[in-house]
Amino acid sequence: MPGDVILQVQDLTKTYGAPPNAVKALDGVSFTVQRGEFVSVIGPSGSGKSTLLHILGGVDRPTAGTVTVDGVDLATLAESRLAVFRRRQIGLVYQFYNLIPTLTVAENLTLPLLLDHRRPDEAALNGMAAALGIADKMDALPAELSGGQQQRVSIGRALLPRPALVLADEPTGNLDSRNSAAIVRLLKTFHQKLDQTLVLITHDRDIALQADRMLAIEDGRIAADEVLRP
Fold this sequence. Notes:
By secondary structure, this protein is of the alpha/beta class. The protein has helices at residues 49-56, 79-89, 105-115, 122-132, 147-159, 177-193, 205-208; strands at 5-16, 23-34, 38-42, 64-69, 72-73, 90-93, 165-169, 197-202, 213-218, 221-227.
């Protein structure tokens, strides 16, 4: 069940370019997410939702405003410390998987741990692979996998370090309807079993409605904040 605040976003603004041609991708966005909550963020292409996720994940910096994850203001971290914090506390799942093509499935899954000089727990790795349905693919390269299997690896890579916050950016946007449904089921299962906090960006209303709460973003602003499951 949701508990204390794990993500706090305050007056977030992101502007690209300079006047008179400046484009404001985010315009004073504020909201909080409770620990253990599943929040979807829905909006049309160009609404600012992917920009929002990248800033929440520390991949991009805002023009103004603050993002606090698990009590840490990301703006206070230098790039080197931010990279470490992101690796340990934030799990990112992308639409295009971002797997390393020369690494095996097992190596891609454990990469964040290895970069952090942590030894992967074999039992946890095998359990994750089994839950993802890729236990028989651990020695395969990404090119030998289907799109759905590659996305499963991407999810496992994000979840294996047990981050405080999982951010998924259109994780089904590159998949057919059958694989899309399977990926959403997986994310929901891990959210429940591991008590993960999940923020999922999507343009698909049917997917967004499966969350505990749905934020609608339009023209860089929060247009609606709807609790779907108390």
